[in-house]
Design a protein that fits this description.
This protein starts with a helix and ends with a strand. The chain has 14 helices and 18 strands. Helix 8 (189-197) runs parallel beside helix 9 (217-225) and helix 12 (286-299) runs parallel beside helix 14. The strands form six sheets. Strands 15-14-17-18-16 form a five-stranded mixed sheet. Strands 1-2-3 form a three-stranded parallel sheet, covered by helices on one side. Helices cover 35% and strands 20% of the residues. The longest helix is centred in the C-terminal third of the chain and has 24 residues, at 327-350. With 404 residues, the chain is an alpha/beta fold. It folds into three domains: 2-108, 3-Layer(aba) Sandwich (Rossmann fold), CATH 3.40.50; 120-350, tm_1862 like domain (pyruvate-formate lyase- activating enzyme), CATH 3.80.30; 356-403, no CATH class.
Length: 404
């Protein structure tokens, strides 16, 4: 989303506008069609590789249409992309995204790039990753980790807040491994969090996605001490079995993860915790999967993003491990975890009944969806504003409450 904002800013500065709907996007008057791609799962790439027939139809209808590919699929060589996607006109690495301005008419070229600001502002603080988990294509697609200058991050946050943003997301492939060397000292992620917290204004701070190996005691102290930090965290575990974690290239154990969660909840008892899981990793036995179920029952996550293992080209897992867990078995394991999650998510939400919480655009500080039952938004000026809501009812994935 942050990368799409960058692309939008380039074209907005040149007096182009986003298409309002699919009809406008595919009309014969649209000069550019841009695909910002994902490579995390094979299905995402398959959808792009399946576009050739559709693009022939669009270009027959609109001969002047220029089609651009960017994003994570640039981990393929441009030669291979041109061969498999002959109807794309340009292939642009996201790290060189400003080159997009070179595609625009000379008279319309933008002078500079500014990311548009909404009530939620996505602020990248680093790009790339140094971890090389065996299943992950990100280091190949994004390159090695590079941290953005502290002064530039704070400038972006100040501008976003000045423009009305109230939900600030600090982003990085491994966001909490951030470090930037100044002349006097090295700024690590906990200190960056404190610097962002010190910026004047009424806003929440969130970040995604952290790595358990880089989750220090100092970071937990900073989170608990920053009054603007929204008490929600997505902490990926990926598997509840140590042998599978090692095979994944995840340099921590289940025991380390459980201790980390205990520390976080001790410092912030009301924090909402979600996680990421991969089911059906090569060689994962039924017994090893049962360990993941035990983690779900013990940790009691409020949300989990559960993915079936998908072999990614050029990764170590794709090269050296056989994808030997059937699709049917992966789906079954995913369903089993979801059943546990439904129970723990509902029980976590039920504990909130009777509490008064801060809400922004139907989301609580714990990132839970909430329906305000005693108002109609057009009648009350609460959109993009913080309001206090008393929780009256809990469902599995959402809450209900009344505006105070």
């Amino acid at each position: 989303m942050a990368d799409s904002d960058k692309i939008t800013a380039i074209f907005n500065k040149a007096n182009y506008q986003n298409a309002k709907d699919e009809d406008e996007l595919l009309s014969d008057k649209n000069p550019f069609l841009i695909f910002n791609t994902c490579s995390v799962r094979q299905k995402a790439e398959d959808r792009v590789f399946g576009l050739n027939k559709k693009l022939i139809e669009l270009k027959d209808k609109n001969p002047n249409l220029k089609v651009v590919l960017t994003g994570c699929m640039m981990h393929y060589s441009e030669k291979e992309l041109k061969n498999r996607l002959p109807h794309f006109d340009y292939f642009v690495d996201m790290k060189k995204i400003k080159k997009l301005s070179g595609l625009l008419p000379e008279t319309l070229k933008p002078k500079d790039v500014q990311t548009k600001t909404d009530v939620s502002a996505l602020i990248p603080i680093s790009n790339g990753c140094n971890n090389f988990c065996t299943y992950c294509v990100v280091p190949l697609a994004r390159g090695r980790e590079i941290s953005k200058a502290v002064i530039d991050i704070l400038k972006d946050v100040r501008k976003a807040v000045a423009d009305g943003a109230k939900d600030i997301w600090l982003l990085g492939q491994t966001v909490n491994s951030y470090r930037y060397n100044l002349k006097s000292k090295e700024i690590k992620f906990p200190e960056l969090l404190r610097l962002v917290n010190a910026i004047p204004g009424d806003f929440w701070i969130r970040f995604a996605s952290p790595h358990p190996k880089d989750f220090s005691d100092e970071l937990i102290k900073a989170m608990a001490g920053c009054e603007k930090f929204a008490h929600y965290i997505n902490l990926p575990i990926q598997s509840g079995n140590n042998a599978i974690l090692k095979k994944m290239g995840r340099p921590y154990t289940v025991e380390h993860y459980k201790k980390l969660v205990k520390k976080i909840r001790k410092a912030m008892p009301e924090i909402s915790l979600s996680t990421d899981i991969i089911v059906g990793f090569p060689g994962e036995t039924r017994k090893q999967f049962e360990d993941t179920k035990k983690i779900f029952e013990e940790i009691r996550f409020s949300m989990a993003f559960i993915s079936e293992y998908s072999p990614r080209p050029k990764t170590a897992a794709a090269k050296y491990f056989k994808d030997d867990v059937s699709h049917k078995e992966k789906e079954g394991r995913k369903d089993e975890l979801n059943e546990i999650l439904k129970k723990t998510a509902l029980e976590n939400n039920q504990k909130l009944i009777g509490q008064t919480v801060k809400v922004l655009n139907d989301r609580t500080e714990g990132n839970k969806l909430i329906k305000i039952t005693n108002v109609r938004h057009p009648m009350f000026n609460i959109k993009n504003e913080f309001v206090m809501v008393k929780i009256l009812k809990a469902k599995t994935w959402s809450l209900e409450g009344k505006l105070l």
